[in-house]
Amino acid sequence: MSRVYNFSAGPAVLPEEVLKEAADEMLNYKGTGMSVMEMSHRSKAYQQIIDEAEQDLRDLLNIPDNYKVLFLQGGASLQFAMIPMNLMKNGVADYIVTGQWAKKAYQEACIYGKANAIASSADKTFSYIPDCSDLPISEDADYVYICENNTIYGTKFKTLPNTKGKTLVADVSSCFLSEPMDVEKYGVIYGGVQKNIGPAGVVIAIIREDLITEDTLPGTPTMMKYKIHADNGSLYNTPPAYGIYICGKVFKWLKKMGGLSVMKERNEAKAKILYDFLDQSELFKGTVRKEDRSLMNIPFITGDADLDAKFVKEAKAAGLENLKGHRSVGGMRASIYNAMPIEGVQALVDFMKKFEEENK
Ligand SMILES: *Cc1c(COP(=O)(O)O)cnc(C)c1O
Asked: Residue 344: CB within 6 Å of ligand 1?
């Protein structure tokens, strides 16, 4: 069976080249006589895998030396707790609530301290990014939190909030490595890799060193302290070893593609094909305010739930998979991460044209 175009929001499409390489190395990784899955995480071969993965990520994002790169577990959702546990020195943090993931992070932080929702776009079903140029940032806030790309709603911060000097913490799960970032503008950048980088089970956190201290909230489990992972090079306990290995391969693929500026251009070209179609279609329409549109997750509707369902079903039969919108919003959503080829987006738009013709 041939591969489909997979528009899943996550776990999501990976570069075919990477999957093939991993398949080739499955039984015998570089003459070790074993799979990476079977290998001690204390072995020389594995140390090289994780070291190279970190270095390649540093190269891709230009990560300054005073930032640690941690490979962690527990999904992006565990960071919703780890962030307040490690960063809430004053017990106060400000959250910008632009969707379900930001809301969950905010709710989790409320368990550990005084979390303030200082802005929200809930009034219009999270279809836009609020103006964050002059927010009521708390004087004693330990950090300001954003979800930079809202996977479910398809919005993206095009300008970072004015945090008035406070540390910025960002969940970049669904836009990780989709374009260059200025790491120095952030205190913490983190994301689950299953959206745009690798297999579920790995979370990458890039943290400015001064934020990694012994001074965590009382009762913080050892495994949830950034410092323990930083001091042990992400090898305090057994890491998600195979997942990190695949991430490393994706980093090498990204470097080979030309790096993140090239990926950004590619992603813009891909998204334009779909957005341009949506903007002139008489049947389909995008749900997000134009200036806040994500390059990665593109939700759209026909306005008729039955027709939406018909579309999703017929698209699947045509080899275009996972186009159903998130269960909380309905409609459709095309996630077009780094590994989605431009041909996949073109095939989707061709199919949408045909569907529109047949259903007007
Ligand atoms: C998917 C997603 C999450 C949750 O990730 P898990 O790894 O399942 O915990 C959090 N934030 C964003 C932006 C996401 O897209």
From this structure: no
pLDDT band at residue 1 using 50, 70 and 90 as cut-offs: low
pLDDT in tens, 199-248: 999 999 999 999 999 999 999 999 999 999 999 999 999 999 999 999 99
Query: Residue holding tokens 């080739």?
Result: 24
Q: With a 6 A CB cut-off, is 201 part of the ligand 1 pocket?
A: no
Q: What's the N-to-C CA distance of the chain in angstroms?
A: 33
Please classify residue 164 by burial: count the beta carbons closer than 10 Å to its beta carbon, then call 0-12 exposed, 13-18 middle and 19+ buried: middle
Alpha carbon distance 223, 210 (integer Å): 19
| This model's pTM is above 0.85 | yes
Over residues 278-316, the pLDDT tens digits come to: 999 999 999 999 999 999 999 999 999 999 999 999 999
Rounded distance between C-alpha atoms, residue 16 and residue 22, angstroms: 10
* Protein residue whose Cα sits closest to atom 11 of ligand 1: 101
Structure tokens at 338: 């780094």
For residue 2, the CA-to-ligand 1 centroid distance in Å is 29
At residue 256, the pLDDT reads 98
> Please, what is the Cα angle at 315 between 197 and 13, to 5 degrees?
10
Residues β-bridged to residue 207 = 68, 188
Ligand 1: which residue has its CA nearest to atom 14? 173
